[in-house]
Amino acid sequence: MNLVTLLPFIVLIGAMFLMTRSAKKKQQQAAQMRDHMTPGTGIRTIGGMYATVKEIGDDTVTLEVAPGVHAIYAKMAIAAVLDDAEYNRIVHGAEAAADHEAPVVPDDISSLTKDEDEAPKADLAKKDEDEAPKLDLGKKDQPEDGKGDAEGDGEAGAK
After folding, report:
1. What ranges in 55-112 are assigned the alpha helix state H?
2. pTM for the complete prediction?
3. CA 96, 67, 101: angle at the middle one, nearest 5?
4. 104-121 confidence digits (pLDDT tens)
């Protein structure tokens, strides 16, 4: 056989080998992470729930999902073991660094506009009908008998 015909098969087998090797490596890291859990550690499950580890069994973990609420999960359901600072930041909203203050956002737009003396005010009041301009329709635009163009003497609309 020719080397050119075997080349696609060799590349395919090599790609499969690399993919399985990286998957095994990730599984080993995840297992090692789960083995290093201790009671009191903050975790995130594969479903996205944050909880605190209370007890660790062979294949299960007892998690405290809320104060006084315990749930039993499989160890494989633990996606990440979080350090204390990250867990407190996510769950309790505690800032990692106290000296980084968030910008103050006003409750309304009044503090973002100029002073009342400087800003011109728009006149949005409804005007009386007497002040509104009237449309002047002369006699040449209206037929004398009061009928519209289609209802007239039949010259234009009789077809």
Report:
1. 84-91
2. 0.47
3. 20
4. 666 677 666 655 556 566
